Known about the structure:
The structure holds 2 protein chains of 2 kinds.
Chain A: E1 4-7, E2 10-11, E3 14-15, H1 18-29, E4 36-41, H2 43-53, E5 59-64, H3 73-83, E6 89-93, H4 96-109, E7 112-117, E8 119-124, E9 127-134, E10 139-146, E11 151-155, E12 171-174, E13 186-192, E14 206-210, H5 220-230, E15 233-236, H6 238-242, E16 263-267, H7 273-276, E17 284-288, H8 296-299, E18 302-304, H9 308-325
Parallel strand pairs in A: 1-4, 1-6, 4-5, 5-12, 6-11, 7-11, 14-15, 14-16, 16-17, 17-18
Antiparallel strand pairs in A: 2-3, 8-9, 9-10
Helix pairs in contact in A: 3-4, 5-9
Chain B: E1 2-6, E2 9-11, E3 34-36, H1 38-54, E4 57-63, H2 69-78, E5 82-86, H3 96-107, E6 114-118, H4 128-136, E7 140-149, E8 154-160, E9 166-172, E10 175-179, H5 191-196, E11 204-205, H6 207-210, H7 218-221, E12 224-230, E13 239-240, H8 245-260
Parallel strand pairs in B: 1-4, 1-6, 4-5, 5-11, 6-10, 7-10
Antiparallel strand pairs in B: 2-3, 7-8, 8-9
Helix pairs in contact in B: 3-4
Amino acid sequence: MARIFTYMMHKGGAVDDTAFELAAAARRIDPTALPTAIVTGWGANLDAACKALQGSYAETWKIASEALAYPNAELIRKALVKVLPSNSIVLVAHEHFGIDLAPGLSIKLNSAFVSDVLDIAGVEGTGLKVVRQEFGGQVSAHVRCDISSGAVITVRPGAFKPQEGAATAGTVVDKSADVGALTAGRRYVETVVAEAGDVDITKHSILVSIGRGIQEKDNVAIAQELADALGAAVSCSRPVVDAKWMEKSRQVGSSGKTVKPKVYLACGISGSFQHLAGLKGSPFLIAINKNPKAPIFQVADIGVVDDILEFLPELTNKVRETRSAA
Amino acid sequence: MEILVCVRRVPDTSENEIQLNSAGDDIERDDLVYSINEADNYAVEEALQIVARVGGNVTVATVGGEDDEEVLRREMAMGASHGVLITDDAFSGSDGRGIATILKAFVQKGNYDLILTGIQAEDGGAQVGGMLAALLDYPFASLVNSIEVLDGKKLKVSREIEGGNKEISEIDLPCVLSIQTGINEPRYVGMKGIRAVASIPIPTFGVSNLGLEPSAVGEAAAKVKRVDYFVPALGKGAEILHGTREENIDKVLELVAAKGGLK
């Protein structure tokens, strides 16, 4: 079995949660593997990240370069191509940086590429069988990947149970000298922080959250009326923001806000993993969707198969009746 | 600016319940509604807006079969000047790298300053744009949610990163960008617009006029192959309420009150 490497994201000296999930995924590919962590960056933050990894990885490869102080996928790809042995299996978290890095890395390593892997089904000879989802999570697929010339695999955050504390005093190997000067056709300028919106959805204990099923902008009022009656706020999933029906500040998900309500009413939301990644603290999840196959029903506590455009107004009326009677 | 947008025709998941066929080796495709991949449509709109600002042409291309012509015509009705169908039996079974290899050969037949793809397809994994860029040795950015042309040689682009924050970079041309949904508001295309482009010829490219080795693409070259589809055994899953609408509303309200501390 080829050597397995995991690329480590870190910020401000802290290693990303996915570090330990990637270690778990590596051991699902090869239970005897001692995966090697690779971490790139510069200065004290890089050293702190290496130290944090020593508790979980027997070996950590450190690549220090001032050019890598901000994670630029093109520069990091060039650095990795210089240090990785041939036929390596490289695991990267499937988030915005992994999406930037991994496809091109597989080309330059001349290895197979599989993205957004949820599970490892097994290895037969040079074939690694993995599980992916397609069509918005409505169906899953087994995918066979020929790893004879290595593989680059992006792993869905949260899909593998993190594995910590496997090593106690891992070693850090400095590979910086192997990398040399790095230049890229894309240069980082700045990060623009998201604007705060008119309503802070992170502060509400009940969210009426709408997805594509709301169908048009005028129908947002249906959700707002229910939220008003409940003393809740309206949040939404990505398609609603893409269509410009609500502000970005109302979006729940990995590219939006992380919320911790007590009750989450998912209305016409299919339930993509990017959306669910924004739900923390195990809220009581009630899903209303007219598609009985919607993935949201796999994770919800209570499901109602109905048309939200009819269900929500009637629910609003009932809330108003109940509250005026009380 | 000469812009190439790579598009795909896919089953529309907002219009279809995706089911497995009886053999379990594919989804049931008989009654599916197909449309342009959503992110690709945003990419075409972005290309049209760039050309409206700085001049140039937009070409849309797809790797597929005859049925895929309809999405090329749809995007031509939006304003793309040219549509190109890249089709060959030898392309069947290509993995992401195979598709990127085919597109690279096509790109090298032209003189494009900018190549756009959608960030991902309904069944895909955000792979072809980044692979194509690496094959061409062009710079690449994924999850792009704004583009500003700085001069003839570079762009200022924004990527969508965690928490709705934006990562701003400068990127040299020629380059490949994969476009995130929501970057713009794609224009409406009516039947009239599609009829207006119905008779424009759509050139086709295949293995021979792209100068490709058949063994470099298609199933034989694919390192990644789908084995089967399945519906995962659910965990606990939701308790589905099977009452009348009125009963369901009462139950939902009771639970919201109990769990949410509704006063």
